[in-house]
Amino acid sequence: MLYAATVLVWGLSWYAMEMQLVLPGELDILYRFFLATVVLLGFCVATRRRLRFGARDHLFMALQGLLLFCLNYVLFYWAAVDLVSGLLAVCFSTMTVMNIVTGALLFRQRIDPIVAVAAALGLAGLALVFWPELAHVELSGKVAAGVALSLGGTLSASLGNMVTLRHKAAGVPVIEGNTIGMAYGTLFSLLLVLGRGIPLQFEASPGYVGSLLYLALFATVLGFGCYLTLVQRIGADRAAYTTVLFPVVALAVSTFLENYHWTAMAAVGVILVLAGNLLVLTQRRPAAAMPPQPLPAAGRSGK
Fold first, then answer.
1. How far are the Cα atoms of 122, 262, 268, 290 from residue 128, in angstroms, in the given order?
2. 215-242: per-residue pLDDT in tens?
3. Domain ranges across the chain
4. Would you say 124 and 153 are in contact if contact means Cβ atoms under 8 Å apart?
5. How far apart are CA 131 and CA 303, in angstroms?
């Protein structure tokens, strides 16, 4: 259910993000995570969750906020200026590979060959789905810069996933960690907006406000809650396969709302994506592959 919820809410978020394009992307990120932080903080207060943590935990929460709730999104918004959506989707889905590599390097996780094959199937399938867009991409300096930015954003998200594994080792709960991490992410976004001299403006149209509420409440509060719980339960490598699936959900939505026409190549691509998904979800993770605890929660107070 966590896996399905993540894929669904993030798949629908692509359409909502298109309605946010009336303002600079940095402002969209700032408003989205500010609202999500307020909602999560209210939930923590209402349910009497303890938010007292030591300096070391706050350091990692700030790192997660920078990597996962700020820099990741900023780099993709900048990349989107020069890249088509299909190439952005393929670049972001390389997180399935990045999580395998970063997990092996930082936590000495064994690379599961089945999960690696599943990641390859997913990336190949997604490339086929978006092939009509990819085939018309002309190589240029701007395109190369956009690819570099999007891969940098993907690496930022992958490293943020690794911080989530550290949270598990330190006993930091997902909801409390997300609340404080998003607060730090909001602060970093505000500093970026002020540093770039972007005026603090707001769009009060129903489309913008509605899409902002969806992105903050569902794609951020619910989506990240489900996804980062998955990272801790089944591992970052397997959880990252959701990044291959939700672009397919986005295309399904586009079929009804934007008259997207499916091709035989796209259908084959979806079959490959689903085959990789089947491998990911049916492969049992050996106990030895769970991350060790190399980063103790020294200096932590509270729960």
1. 10, 11, 7, 33
2. 999 999 999 999 999 999 999 989 999 9
3. 2-285
4. no
5. 50
